[in-house]
Amino acid sequence: MTNHITTTWLGNMKFESTNPSGHNLFIDAGPENDGNGEGYRPKALMLSGLAGCSGLDVAALIKKMKLEVANFKIEINANLTEEHPKYYDKVEMNFHFFGDNLDEKKLQRAVDLSVEKYCGVMEMFRQFADVQVNTFFNN
């Protein structure tokens, strides 16, 4: 399967990028790089892609396993190298689950299945970064 996107320059440092979902997004540099900050930063967007990919896996597994979860969020801290081309060499991904009746063992299994088997974006990140995944349960 091939994904096709088109990213079009809108002037200055701003671009509009299509997505197979039909929802377009804007990419822009910050004022420190002559942009107006009217869009996503490309490298940060990669981190959102990682969180979204794994989050979709975990959400599907929560539904499939019939687990009780009030909410969950994924926080990512990533270290950017100093030399050009700058890239993420270390990524820490933290899953935070919230609820009164969390099945910690099954939720950990859902996270493990995502990061070890299902999430293609995670596999891409592993090609260039040291990725650490942590899970936190909040009752």
From TrEMBL:
Highest taxon, organism lineage: Bacteria
One matching Pfam family: OsmC
Protein name: OsmC family protein
Organism: Aestuariibaculum marinum
